[in-house]
Design goal:
14 helices, Glycosyl transferase, group 1, alpha/beta, single chain, Rossmann fold, transferase, glycosyltransferase activity, Glyco_trans_1
């Protein structure tokens, strides 16, 4: 089966990481790639040195000269037709297509952008062209159904990652001081301000706790200002982008995931491989990545955006509904209570509880999160759509 992937490769994110794992597992020439960005991010380029990439908007593939805006959808259509693919997979974006491709099944892989798409003519037109949608989580499937009432099949192939390197397989127990960790792009949407308020609350309660914040992003300076305001400078480390994530997770006792929205948390899954229990919101696809009470503790978001702004000074701008998996409905976005997060940390400070959830995390990751399962299910789903055998 010849597969054509249409994707934005400008910067690394969850969907790009999954895509790279998928194409790098294939040893034949069955994957063709059209990149809708004009350049490929350096980190991505390093991880796919041998994969040929066609640029959607370039007049000449080796030169950055782009064709005029009004011609781009026709140029993309021509490049798709030249690929003569059996299946065309659009990864988490809505491309400008002049018409439905005449050859090959057109599929859309949703990794979370469905939360943000405007319900307009362009979106509806693209969805009307599709032969099918593959969702990265049940939450993604329900968002697609509730927002757009899809006219095509929409199976779920759960997001998974390859087993990370450098895992310390010795049984984990909490350090002194207790080490909290979070890793994400440093933007208000990720709720890092909730994590900082949680740390402050724990210290107010008399606990010996520190926090490491990995990643980089435009709001880092604002987070650093909040750290100073809460007098946490000697308790918080901003460690930047982690080239070696094993060091970060091996030294972390509890992983805090406090975002406003998260279709399926890859960093949470990663934490589980290292035996790190996760505190997370019961929102979107997070309960599908971490099982509440088994390898982490889930908390229902209750704090409004306005209330959080008063607590932290951070205004979270997410003008879309999120998915409430408990009640199977779309709701206005809210944040976790730092008081309830601190209560959850205290529960995990009990060594027996901590060790049980840490063991469960490792067992769960091995049994349920293996990337080979994703590849088999993904290929099986593609096969069902194309009705071909491998």
């Amino acid at each position: 089966m010849k597969k054509l992937h249409i994707i934005n490769l400008a910067k690394m994110g969850g969907v790009e990481r999954l895509f790279l794992q998928y194409v790098n597992e294939t040893t034949d020439d069955s994957n063709a790639v059209i990149c809708v960005s004009n350049d490929i991010g350096e980190e991505i380029k390093r991880q796919m040195p041998h994969q040929k990439v066609t640029f959607a908007t370039r007049l000449f593939n080796q030169l950055p000269l782009r064709c005029p805006q009004f011609l781009r959808k026709f140029l993309l259509q021509w490049k798709i037709s030249r690929a003569t693919a059996d299946v065309i997979i659009v990864w988490d974006l809505i491309p400008g297509l002049a018409a439905k491709p005449k050859r090959g099944k057109l599929l859309y892989y949703d990794h979370g952008c469905s939360w943000r798409y405007a319900d307009n003519a362009k979106t509806r037109r693209f969805f009307a062209m599709l032969d099918g949608v593959i969702s990265a989580s049940y939450a993604s499937k329900r968002v697609m159904e509730l927002r757009f009432n899809l006219p095509c099949p929409n199976p779920v192939v759960l997001n998974r990652i390859k087993t990370p390197d450098g895992i310390n397989h010795q049984p984990k127990s909490p350090h002194v001081p207790l080490r909290l960790g979070t890793a994400s792009r440093l933007v208000s949407l990720k709720g890092i301000s909730v994590s900082l308020l949680t740390l402050h609350e724990l210290i107010q309660r008399g606990h010996n706790v520190v926090m490491e914040i990995a990643g980089k992003g435009p709001d880092q300076e604002a987070f650093e200002t909040l750290v100073q305001k809460l007098q946490l400078s000697d308790r918080v480390t901003f460690s930047g982008f982690q080239h070696n994530v094993s060091d970060f997770f091996n030294r972390t006792d509890i992983y805090l995931s406090t975002p406003v929205t998260e279709p399926f948390g890859l960093s949470c899954m990663e934490a589980l491989y290292y035996g790190v229990p996760v505190i997370f919101p019961l929102v979107d696809g997070q309960p599908e990545a971490v099982t509440d009470g088994v390898c982490g503790l889930g908390i229902s978001p209750k704090v409004t955006v306005t209330e959080h702004h008063k607590l932290s000074g951070f205004h979270v701008d997410f003008p879309y509904d999120v998915y409430d998996p408990v009640n199977d409905t779309l709701v206005s976005p809210k944040l976790l209570s730092h008081i309830e997060c601190a209560d959850a940390v205290e529960k995990l400070m009990v060594e027996e509880t901590y060790c049980r959830l840490s063991r469960n995390a490792r067992n769960y990751s091995i049994q349920s999160l293996d990337f080979d399962m994703f590849k088999k299910e993904f290929d099986k789903t593609l096969n069902l759509f194309t009705e071909q055998s491998f």
